[in-house]
Amino acid sequence: MPKYVQVLLEVGVPDRILKCLDYVKSRDLGKPVAFLAKMASVRPLALHLLGKGLLDPGNVRKLLNSSNPREVVLDILMIISDLARMDKDLYEHLNRADLLESMKTFLSHEDPNVRAKTCSAIGNMCRHSPYFYSSLASQHIISLLIDRCADPDKRTRKYACFAIGNAAYHNDLLYEELRRSIPLLTSLLVSSEEDKTRANAAGALSNLVRNSNRLCEDIISKGAMQALLKLVADCSTVALSPSRKDAVNESPLKIALFSLAKMCSYSPCRQFVRSSELLPIIGRLKQSPDETVANYVSIIIKKIAEA
User: Fold this and answer.
1) Could you give the 3-state DSSP secondary structure of residue 52?
2) Predicted pLDDT of residue 239
3) Are 94 and 121 spatial neighbours (Cβ–Cβ below 8 Å)?
4) Distance between CA atoms of residues 180 and 77, nearest Å
5) Is 162:124 a contact under the CB 8 Å cutoff?
6) What is the pLDDT of residue 216?
7) By the 8 A CB rule, do 95 and 80 touch?
8) How far apart are the C-alpha atoms of 208 and 149, rounded to whole Å?
9) Nearby residues of 173 by Cβ (< 8 Å), 6 or more positions away
10) CA–CA dist 191, 194 (Å, integer)
């Protein structure tokens, strides 16, 4: 692959594909943009394309135009997501591209694939630092993101939970606006969602207490702690079985225990766990053959012993 990348750069392929966008009609953008999306996932090519104007605001407005074929919009969202995931130093390029107004619109798009990829891109834009937190708040994007936790599309729900988790990770700037996500995340924990979505929801709830205790009362009163405890209890049989290690790794159990351990840093949350009828079931997981599960349970038991 490194040799192939070197050859592409030497013969100027990225430059030519980018330049051809100036001459291609909207209906014919699909193939060149798909090629750009493939190249943008490879760091040396991505950096070269950025240097040649891939995310210039004019380019972005043209490529995110709703009149373009759907696959063009999806590929541009994938480029945004890949670049955001790649390196926090690329956030400045994304910021200069003036993306947020379009992304705000796409969160309510009729196509569930567009909604899902937009949630994923926003999640990656919050992955490495709080660089975009203030902009997401001022553009009223967080509220729309929260709504996507109740989206009819399962992939959109999964990526909305991922994005909310990252929007809460670095500091508590967005906690007040994210307060409304707690009952929706709680509902996903106790539903028949796929395991990855429930893990993302549990992780998001953990991050909502990561930086301060501002949301502890809501975490308790909206049923989030009870839902986490029930999820752990429901997984307990599998967690105690030496032959079911793969099932434990695939389930949301570890993230749920990690979240409970985080919540037990605060007195009201410790008191809730202490008084739960599910505590004995949780306590038995100290005997789990899975080292991580046993360790998280030990942390919870140790914390709830505090005043």
Assistant:
1) coil
2) 76
3) no
4) 26
5) no
6) 96
7) no
8) 15
9) 130, 133, 134, 137
10) 9
